[in-house]
Amino acid sequence: MNTGKQIVFVTNNSTKSRADYKKKLVAMGIPAEEEEVFGSAYSAAIYISRILTLPQDRRTVFVIGETGIETELDSESIRHIGGTDDSVRRDITPEDYTSIASGAALDPSVGVVLVGLDFHINYLKLSLAYHYIQRGAVFLATNLDSTLPNSHTLFPGAGAISSPLVRMLGRDPVALGKPSQAMMDAIEGKFRFSREKTCMVGDRLDTDIKFGLEGGLGGTLAVLTGVSKLEDMEAEGEDVVKPMAYVDKLGDLLV
């Protein structure tokens, strides 16, 4: 039934493209269009192509991440290297140390290092990324989630992938996923929605709910089917993120 409400599916998972998520949602019985999906990989691609000002000869992106990032960069006609290329999915060699240090292994057109969730992270990718940033590349991250929920437990998230670089560089990347308000601004710019009439629904307090609160949305609804649990909702303290309301599961709204 069409209620006239606009729905936007916002995800921090950069391993899948908008097209991938449309297929996933439809397979779950949830009607969705590709244009209704706004992921952190797409958010990063939009930021690089339409907001970030780069020299003409420094517009290549070195990717630490999976095909979702590469697909969205391709959608914005952004040249990229690294990522899923077999040339960086290997162990580092003594020759690599020498060629990276001298700059011979570095592409001079790289102006951005973009880090997302990477299931094949290794020492070579981190070394290349570090030296690109040291030579002036902009340091971006799709998101800073410390963990990734799967199979009823937690695994390393995208924030765990970028953290070695953060430690080496002594500074954080510009993050383009929830709760970054750069992502909220980009979504608002695309969909032209009224913030005070919008409700953010999510299962994670430090990303989803914080995203809605800091974005000044009219409502925030947490569901207890993900990372954050009941004790998190009921916690007290100055730094506690609290939703306007919470339910056990999204289906409770239909009761």
How do the strands and helices of this protein lay out in sequence?
Blueprint: E1 9-11, H1 18-27, E2 37-39, H2 40-51, E3 60-64, H3 67-75, E4 80-82, H4 94-102, E5 110-115, H5 123-134, E6 138-141, E7 147-150, E8 153-156, H6 158-169, E9 174-175, H7 181-191, E10 199-202, H8 205-214, E11 219-223, H9 230-233, E12 245-247
Parallel strand pairs: 1-2, 3-4, 3-5, 5-6, 6-9, 10-11, 11-12
Antiparallel strand pairs: 7-8
State the main characteristics.
5-stranded parallel β-sheet, 255 residues, alpha/beta, 3-stranded parallel β-sheet, 9 helices
Describe it.
The mean pLDDT is 94. The chain is globular and about 65 Å long. With 255 residues, it is of the alpha/beta class.
Number of strands: 12
Unreliable stretches: none
**Anisotropy-based shape:** globular
Number of helices: 9
- How big is the Rg? 19 Å
| Share of helical residues | 25-40%
- The computed structural class is alpha/beta
- Sheet bearing the most strands, described? 5 strands, parallel
**Overall mean pLDDT score?**
94
